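dumping this here before i forget
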Amino acid sequence: MSTPTSTERTPRRLVVVQAGVGQPSSTRLLAERLATSTADALLERGEDTQVEFVDLRLHVHALADAMLTGFASGDLAEAVEAVRAADAVIVATPVYQASYSGLFKTFVDILDEGSLKGTPVLLAATAGTARHSLVLEHAMRPLFAHLKAVTVPTAVFAASEDWGAGGLDHGLAARTGVAARELADLVAGAGPSRRAPGRLDGELADPVPFEQLLAG
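structure:
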């Protein structure tokens, strides 16, 4: 029996969540570069890719409604489901007040528990200065560790100077390529048990509700 070629396989679903609000947006541009590099890296590993973008600027009002009502609807619900069903996720946010944006965090807050459990995730951020680059490690990586996502070792930060010819051709391109290959390795090596139900070894038990504690 012959081995199926990449074109005969179900494409890997790559969902890109980006929180840029400008038009054009450096965050969107970075997300696009990462998505293209990841798709290329997966193709080298014999995997086709279906890329879907979730532009959070289009869901601002729906996100506010979801925070008030407790559930997402319409296009936002479809975006949440896309993240849940993704084989891999790229997340990119602008840096505000030395951390991820409120728009980005609001989307993360409405995700169902376990939506990203075991999902390979590539972290990315943009800002006007490289002084904010540690936001990837002190804010974003702990957030996605809490969500039990599998973050790739290389996170990608782009400052204003990275969009010049020198930055694009050297530093940013190199970081993008490394991170994309790491994400592709995780996706290509992920089996069907990636999201097997049940508690992970060493995972803490669910907390007892406060009302139950008060009731004795």
